[in-house]
């Protein structure tokens, strides 16, 4: 996603946003401070920023900050510049899709396009490929993954290495990959995907891990340990399993933010978005939340939309942070910004879809409203 340095700085949408600051984080998080309210330690009043959308609340001993997520979206979304060519707004790949699940990888991949990526690929099993292609001609679908039932024992090593070679050919082109939507839990397939994750890491490709990708990572945390380009997006059950495995304890709701911070630190370097009534986001240093109400419908697939959206926003945020030329130690974590932006956009689209469709709201209704939701926040220029 090469682009002229500073492209974002000249976006009219990005001018003049007065965000609150957080002195306690100033040294580390120059951009994120603009998303945060005054920190209590700085002597500001506890009714911090009551006049703005920025709030904080104490949970156990860790403060949780409500992000000004609209401002984040405006800030990181690149302008539609006529001089740009295909690919510069992002190339995303979803690793997922098997016999059982074809909806999830489709939802994630099409959402990436609807948010604004130029190209969206899906790497899935042969069974799933034709089905996914039939949902949309926009997606580039690679039928290369194999499940145990289709591979003889004596073929496993060669098939596994062929799969890795095939994905590796493409890997450098991607700005972000999403591992897990509709992947299934076949052991051979998960082994192959573990190798793909290792390769992505070596190639410094940001990786969103969701759905069955989290099943893989929970059983093998080493796949993401110490990787600052990894984002985990667990739902309530996936989070519980991760906490049990990594922290060896149960969920502590009273100290939710502290536990999330500890989990990030224990895994090391990763960003985790704990999905739920509020989406709680931490990279082990700060905890931010997005709590704008979306929709009371909990139809399956909303997490897939989120994963595809976070992939796009994170790659935009990475470029934004680089283009603003902050010293490395002062850069905000772009993965956090991507999570904040993806969370708000999904919630806005879900809210609009629910207004229209009420109880019959399904995931495709929400996807159709991603564009309007983004337009309301950050209009395209003409
Ligand atoms: N249309 C599709 O193809 C969809 C496929 N999906 C994929 O389906 C796969 C499995 O994801 P799921 O989120 O369904 O995962 P699970 O199969 O773990 O969970 C399914 C449901 O079972 C229940 N459950 C799970 N663990 C539980 C526990 N410990 N205690 C009580 N109830 C529990 C919950 O209601 C949960 O929502 C993933 O690959 C995911 O991406 C989902 O994204 C939904 C949409
Ligand atoms: N109780 C809730 N109230 C409001 N929003 C919620 C609630 N639970 C989840 N969400 C929203 O729905 C999004 C998807 O979360 P969810 O927990 O449904 O993911 P998931 O189970 O992984 O979804 P999927 O069916 O795609 O696998 C989250 O980003 C969150 O914003
Ligand atoms: Mg899910």
Topology of this protein?
Elements: E1 56-59, E2 62-66, H1 69-76, E3 91-95, H2 103-115, E4 119-125, H3 126-135, E5 140-145, H4 156-171, E6 176-179, H5 187-202, E7 207-209, H6 212-219, E8 230-232, H7 236-246, H8 256-267, E9 271-274, E10 279-282, E11 287-290, H9 302-323, H10 334-357, H11 363-368, H12 370-377
The structure holds ligand NAX, adenosine-5'-triphosphate (ATP) and magnesium ion.
Explain the overall architecture.
With 382 residues, the protein is of the alpha/beta class. The protein has a domain at 82-273 and 297-325: Ribokinase (UDP-N-acetylmuramoyl-L-alanine:D-glutamate ligase), CATH 3.40.1190.20. An eleven-stranded mixed β-sheet has the order 1-2-11-10-9-8-7-6-3-4-5, with helices on both faces. It has helices at residues 69-76, 103-115, 126-135, 156-171, 187-202, 212-219, 236-246, 256-267, 302-323, 334-357, 363-368, 370-377; strands at 56-59, 62-66, 91-95, 119-125, 140-145, 176-179, 207-209, 230-232, 271-274, 279-282, 287-290. The structure holds ligand NAX, adenosine-5'-triphosphate (ATP) and magnesium ion (MG). Magnesium ion binds next to loops. Residues 210-211, 235, 303 line the site of magnesium ion. (6S)-NADPHX binds at residues 182, 235-241, 304. Its cofactor is Mg(2+). Belongs to the NnrD/CARKD family. Keywords: ATP-binding, Lyase, NAD, NADP, Nucleotide-binding, Phosphoprotein.
